[in-house]
Amino acid sequence: MASEAPQKIAILSVYNKTGLLDLAKGLVKQNVRLLASGGTSKLIKEAGFPVEDVSAITKAPEMLSGRVKTLHPAVHAGILARDLASDEKDLADQNISKVDYVICNLYPFKDTIAKVNVTIPEAVEEIDIGGVTLLRAAAKNHSRVTILSDPEDYHEFLKELEKGEVTEKSRQHYALKAFTHTADYDSAISEFFRRKYAGEGEQQLTLRYGANPHQKPASAYVTEGKLPFKALAGSPGYINLLDALNAWQLVKELDAALDYPAAASFKHVSPAGAAIGVPLTSDERKVYMVDDIAGIENSGLAQAYARARGADRMSSFGDVIALSREVDQATAKIISREVSDGVVAPGYTKEALELLTKKKGGKYLVLQMDADYVPPPHETRTLFGVNLTQHRNDAAISPQNTFNSIVVPKDSAPLPESAQRDLTVATIALKFTQSNSVCYALNGQVIGLGAGQQSRIHCTRLAGDKADNWWMRFHERALNIKWKQGTKRPEKSNAIDMLCAGLTPENELEKADYERVFDDVPAPFTAEERKAWLAKLGEVAVSSDAFFPFTDNVFRASRSGVKYIAAPLGSQNDQACFEVAEKLGITYVEQHLRLFHH
Ligand SMILES: NC(=O)c1ncn([C@@H]2O[C@H](COP(=O)(O)O)[C@@H](O)[C@H]2O)c1NC=O
Fold first, then answer.
1. What GO CC annotations are associated with the protein (predicted)?
2. Whose CA is nearest to atom 2 of ligand 1?
3. Which residue of 98, 191, 278, 370 lies most exposed, with the fewest beta carbons within 10 A?
4. Which atom from ligand 1 is nearest to the alpha carbon of 16?
């Protein structure tokens, strides 16, 4: 005669007792033996259903005011045992029965820590140990055991049970829920203790607020190891960190690709400028307002920052700066007199740090980056409660390997080194620019960058207009402006921008405002003067973060002295773009990486 199947066993241990009695009723109806921890057992008993305390199998009382209830081999061997002969023997030797169903939800740790002025001992008592162990053990053995961690699932579970058995698919679904429940629970615990125990600035940093002052609280943290930066002065805001962490990657990659000191000037999570330390000409020193900086000719880093800041001085106002190498006095001197929010670099000389920590009465943000820090390969962010995860964009861009697929002209010689360099600068800048983006570069620096436009031609126009503006600043009329004594640097930048962009005012009030900074008001550029001067701009390199969909981009680039274009292919109009480029004397290079960035 076939032996009768052993009675199924369920262990119940729930903090949230919603739906418990209906569940108990259903289980009893299916002849399941119920074992439950103290409070859970009491409630079921009072409702008149047959239930035993867990101690019936552990032969040990609940202890330490509930700290130990279900933590016992009789429970966990019963849950974890597989249908293997060796496991069956182990159970038989210890007289332990297999457990088939585990119903468990955890102490309300999150609700407890959300209370105002919660103490550490109060929080500690809400850290569930036995429940997490029940959930993990049962979820681990889901090939045999069903784990219910959500009262919402009781009904469906009972429906299946009444039909015979819980399906494998359901067990998998419930196991995943249990694993997610414990992971979420553990994150809440570690976050609570990170705030309490991790030294401020070590693994986590409290930020003044998020993107806006009403977005509080805000913090930056890593879950493993230490934060890769230290604040030597000032305290960063949320957007400062977005800028600093993007800008740092940019300069690190630029320096590695071209073996030059590199600098970036960031605003609102896109570069206003980026450059390597190509020596400055005397005109460049004037245009970038650094002709009085002692020792600049001997500092590659200072020249890199002068270029990065000088590319688009209007956009760089209040920037976050990234520098790829130890900051010296000349670089710090430039920074010290510009309006800027902060700087990130791998180190600072004593003199440089002294200058920077005095800026803004000591509130200027000075971050020291761990130059050896390698981030994990995956990046995750939460948006509207949804986690988005992706492999980090760790694709390498290098002058030698990224720009050797020349499409037109056919049989072209390899690009000159200067073009490879400038395309590298433009392309690495785009890698850290909000998309869509197009960048014009020359002399190892960005000269025009169009960021965050939905239309590519708008990027190409915006960046091209900025490049034109940059070039107009080298016109002798702009170089030789006679300023009123006491005119501030931002006022000069603003007036130069209006003059060079052809935006000199006509309205009397605005005109008076514009003209008050000059000793000698410069004449606006005529259309002919502009045209003649812009015709002298040449050898410019352009990179695009995705393909050019129409030929208008090539035509527009050509108007700003563009000689080299690097872009991904894939547009229906690729061929037409190549033909236009060839006719305009532009070398078109296939750049194989699409570089969207958000
Ligand atoms: N210590 C233990 O062995 C233990 N076993 C289960 N629990 C938790 O105790 C709660 C249920 O307790 P009760 O049945 O006494 O109301 C559940 O949230 C469960 O997750 C435990 N409590 C804390 O770790």
1. cytosol
2. 130
3. 370
4. 18
- Say which amino acid occupies 499: L
Quick: pLDDT tens for 27-50.
Answer: 999 999 999 999 999 999 999 999
Cα Rg, the chain, nearest whole Å: 33
User: What's the predicted TM-score (pTM) here?
Assistant: 0.88
Distance CA 354, CA 356 (A): 6
Type of residue numbered 24: A
Six token digits for residue 558: 């050509």
Distance CA 431, CA 175 (A): 40
Alpha carbons 113 and 125: distance in angstroms, whole number: 11
For residues 457 and 464, give the distance between their C-alpha atoms in angstroms, rounded to a whole number.
10
Residues of the chain above pLDDT 90, percent: 94
Express each pLDDT in 442-486 by its tens digit. 999 999 999 999 999 999 999 999 999 999 999 999 999 999 999
User: Torsions phi, psi of 97, nearest 5?
Assistant: -100, 150
SS (H, E, C) 404-437: CEEEECCCCCCCCHHHHHHHHHHHHHHHCCCCCE
Test site for ligand 1: of 13, 40, 41, 42, most ligand atoms within 8 A of the Cβ? 13
Cβ–Cβ under 8 Å, residues 57 and 88: no
For the stretch 319-377, pLDDT in tens is 999 999 999 999 999 999 999 999 999 999 999 999 999 999 999 999 999 999 999 99
Ligand 1 centroid from CA 131, angstroms? 5
ipTM: 0.86
